[in-house]
Amino acid sequence: MRHRLFNAGAKAAAAAGLALLALVAVPEGRPAAAAEPVRILALGDSLTAGYGLPEQDGFTARLQRALRDKGYQADVINAGVSGDTTAGGRARLEWALADQPQLAVVALGANDGLRGIDPASTRENLDAILATLKEREVPTLLAGMYAPPNLGRDYGERFNAIYPELAAKYDVPLYPFFLEGVALDRKLNQEDGMHPNAQGVAIMVDGILPHLTGLLDDLPRRDVKG
């Protein structure tokens, strides 16, 4: 009888010990799953697509690495199409949004300027893109572009006004010139003089990065950093 009582007591003590270990080892509540990376849509043209460069040297790949080097958990979706105009970007926006991005960078308009497209059309397309992103509640960074000087003063004034005016209309941050520090510098561009080389892309990323991390820091949810 005593033997059976001893065994029962030992089993109870062992069970209590295991329960105590479980309480010590597992924090109260259900452990949180690791946060998924923030999906950032980069909607643009050849400058975004990484024309003429190995994939790892393109804008989106370098931007993703730069964000992760700063501790941001982010995946940058390359939605750049070489030769695309604002009309092309507008036409494929719904397709691009199928990836359900939490943030977007819109970098379109360079080809509109090169082709001398009416700035009214460029404005209309960018307006529609920003309106859709706002409707979908996707915080957006607008990357601006300047008109080629050979198209004249009137064209340049109309074109260059598009980006700050739309940024104000939709209350989105503006990076005034996507090619800041790179345009017209032969050392930073490929042989065509228009597309940045790897060194030029690095400068583009360094320039736009603080504007993008500001948006990431303002995201209302989750641990995007750490």
Give short descriptive properties of this protein.
single chain, 226 residues, Rossmann fold, 5 strands, 10 helices, 48% helix, five-stranded parallel sheet, globular, alpha/beta
3D structure, described in words:
InterPro entries: Ester_Hydrolysis_Enzymes, SGNH_hydro, SGNH_hydro_sf. By secondary structure, the protein is of the alpha/beta class. It has one domain (38-211): Rossmann fold, CATH 3.40.50.1110. It is 48% helix and 11% strand. The chain has helices at 2-25, 46-49, 59-69, 86-91, 93-96, 110-114, 119-135, 153-160, 162-170, 198-218, and strands at 38-44, 74-80, 103-107, 140-143, 174-175. It has a 5-stranded parallel β-sheet, sandwiched between helices. Residues 1-33 have low confidence and may be disordered.
Topology readout:
Blueprint: H1 2-25, E1 38-44, H2 46-49, H3 59-69, E2 74-80, H4 86-91, H5 93-96, E3 103-107, H6 110-114, H7 119-135, E4 140-143, H8 153-160, H9 162-170, E5 174-175, H10 198-218
Parallel strand pairs: 1-2, 1-3, 3-4, 4-5
Helix pairs in contact: 3-10, 7-9
Signal peptide: 1-27
Organism: Skermanella cutis
Keywords: Signal
